[in-house]
């Protein structure tokens, strides 16, 4: 973060200063006292189980020079009514200051699936152009996004942001903190349907990243998704589209998938005429055809930010997995391949992962799908889980394991589609799934682990991927 005095922090947040106004914050902004370094600003967020105010003394003892707090403390602090809102205001102030000082560009990504992969790809496309800040993991909400913004300083050239929403107005709030120069919308899908009240509510919420563009900003929209491309009518400025259909401005042509599930294509960028189009070959290291959408989105944004076509294609081909538990592939020493996509799940991403499993396993390896609950689907939850079970049978998945009561519909759907005997199993929890797989997995198997993060199936992903003597290889993933 840029250096700020305590007085400047108070002015930016509308808080009351209870410290020497000349005290300087010249370190990071943190919400975890264990991450404090000298010069840090400690944000005392109240939580469900712990209250950050209880750790203020520890933070100052570790070197924090100032605390952002909701009540008076013995430590130097700025007191505000709402700590979370004040964090957002501080980030908004710092970003506005950086934009006044230099040529910082902000690119933000949203969508029902693929946000984290796309922002990771963008980071790898842009870093060679200049200093780039990219969120850790899925720092995409009202806490994570401001913390990411506050990592930027006077040297930062590109600020990549992931924006998540679980309701109407969420992206409006985030774009008020960080109005994007480039807004990317990937898909409108069935994630969080229970909170949005239906697919049209999802579309309306995602469109807020378009209406929240900075003056002169560009909307980058998925031409393959009708609900996304319809957002062009809401854009206050230029619109650039990406996809696989002929009308897309940035397009994947000659698409192919190899036996490892990795896509290759020709990246085609529209010119003024057909003869003016630019083309370059891309071979992704990411597993799953669905990553073509993420790669095209990242490519289009990077092109808009000044990266040329040849460099975009070369960097996409070199890009590797950054965030864990997202189509992360491990080839174990015992001959088992693990595809760990256990960070999150909704019907769209579950279908994509199952298709990738089928491709990687092919006809000569046994495919094993270990699937947990997809959360936040509301009234559609039962039907959505049954549809996934039916799809697993249609894809000829050899062993399907449904984990937990919330995923029981997956087994039911498989049985309805004609699965019988030991082809489909139900286990009550992660421990039971681990015990079953220790008995079942054998050399040559390809096993997919996927569920919403809250199901805890990521623990199984860690266990399965860690079952190697070190000669296994970590591949690329989402």
Oligomer: single chain
Task: Report strand order across the widest sheet.
Answer: 9-10-8-11-12-13-14-15-16
Unreliable stretches (pLDDT < 50, length at least 5) are: 467-478
For the largest beta-sheet, the strand count, sense and barrel status come to: 9 strands, mixed
> What structural class is derived from the secondary structure elements?
alpha/beta
Gross geometry: globular
Q: Which percent range describes the beta-strand content?
A: 15-25%
Mean pLDDT: 93
Features:
34% helix; 478 residues; nine-stranded mixed beta sheet; seven-stranded mixed beta sheet; alpha/beta; disordered C terminus; 17 helices
Give a written overview of the molecule:
The chain is an alpha/beta fold. The protein is built from 17 helices and 23 strands. It has helices spanning 6-13, 56-61, 83-101, 115-126, 144-149, 170-177, 193-196, 199-206, 208-211, 226-229, 291-304, 309-318, 347-361, 381-394, 408-417, 430-440, 458-466, and strands at 4-5, 16-18, 24-25, 29-30, 41-43, 66-69, 77-79, 105-110, 132-133, 158-162, 182-185, 218-222, 238-243, 250-257, 262-269, 278-287, 328-331, 337-341, 367-371, 399-403, 424-427, 446-450, 473-474. A nine-stranded mixed β-sheet has the order 9-10-8-11-12-13-14-15-16. A seven-stranded mixed β-sheet has the order 21-20-19-22-18-17-23, with helices on both faces. Strand 9 (132-133), helix 5 and strand 10 form a beta-alpha-beta unit. Helix 13 packs parallel to helix 14. Mean pLDDT is 93; it is low at 467-478.
């Amino acid at each position: 973060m840029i250096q700020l005095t305590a007085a400047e922090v108070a002015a930016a947040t509308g808080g009351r200063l209870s410290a020497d106004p000349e005290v300087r914050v010249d370190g990071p902004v943190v919400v975890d006292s264990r991450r404090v370094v000298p010069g840090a600003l400690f944000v005392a967020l109240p939580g469900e189980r712990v209250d950050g105010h209880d750790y203020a003394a520890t933070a100052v003892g570790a070197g924090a020079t100032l605390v952002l707090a909701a009540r008076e403390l013995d430590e130097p602090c700025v007191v505000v009514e709402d700590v979370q809102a004040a964090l957002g205001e501080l980030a908004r102030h710092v970003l506005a200051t950086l934009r006044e000082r230099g040529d910082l560009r902000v690119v933000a990504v949203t969508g029902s699936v693929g946000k984290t992969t796309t922002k990771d790809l963008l980071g790898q496309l842009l870093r060679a152009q200049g200093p780039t800040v990219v969120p850790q993991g899925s720092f995409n909400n009202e806490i994570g996004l401001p913390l990411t913004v506050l990592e930027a300083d006077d040297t930062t050239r590109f600020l990549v942001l992931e924006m998540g929403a679980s309701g109407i107005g969420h992206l409006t709030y985030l774009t008020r903190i960080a109005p994007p120069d480039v807004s990317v919308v990937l898909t409108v899908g069935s994630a969080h349907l229970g909170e949005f009240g239906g697919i049209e509510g999802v579309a309306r919420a995602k469109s807020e990243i378009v209406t929240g563009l900075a003056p002169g900003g560009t909307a980058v929209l998925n031409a393959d998704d009708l609900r996304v491309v319809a957002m062009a009518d809401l854009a206050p400025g230029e619109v650039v589209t990406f996809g696989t259909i002929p009308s897309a401005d940035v397009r994947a042509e000659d698409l192919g998938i190899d036996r490892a599930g990795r896509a290759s294509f020709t990246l085609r960028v529209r010119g003024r005429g057909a003869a003016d189009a630019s083309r370059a070959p891309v071979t992704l290291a990411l597993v799953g055809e669905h990553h073509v959408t993420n790669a095209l989105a990242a490519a289009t944004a990077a092109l808009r930010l000044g990266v040329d076509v040849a460099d975009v294609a070369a960097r996409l081909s070199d890009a590797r997995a950054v965030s864990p538990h997202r189509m992360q592939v491990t080839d174990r020493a015992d001959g088992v391949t693990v595809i760990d996509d256990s960070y999150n799940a909704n019907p769209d991403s579950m279908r994509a992962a199952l298709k990738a499993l089928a491709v990687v396993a092919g006809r000569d390896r046994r495919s094993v799908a270990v699937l947990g609950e997809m959360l936040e689907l509301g009234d559609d939850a039962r039907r959505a889980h049954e549809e996934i079970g039916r799809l697993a049978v249609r894809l000829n998945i050899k062993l399907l394991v449904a984990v937990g009561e919330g995923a029981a519909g997956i087994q039911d759907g498989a049985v309805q589609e004609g699965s019988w005997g030991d082809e489909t199993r139900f286990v009550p929890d992660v421990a039971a799934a681990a015990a079953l797989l220790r008995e079942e997995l054998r050399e040559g198997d390809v096993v997919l682990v996927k569920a919403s993060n809250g199901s805890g199936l990521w623990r199984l992903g860690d266990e399965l991927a860690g079952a190697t003597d070190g000669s296994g290889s970590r591949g690329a993933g989402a």
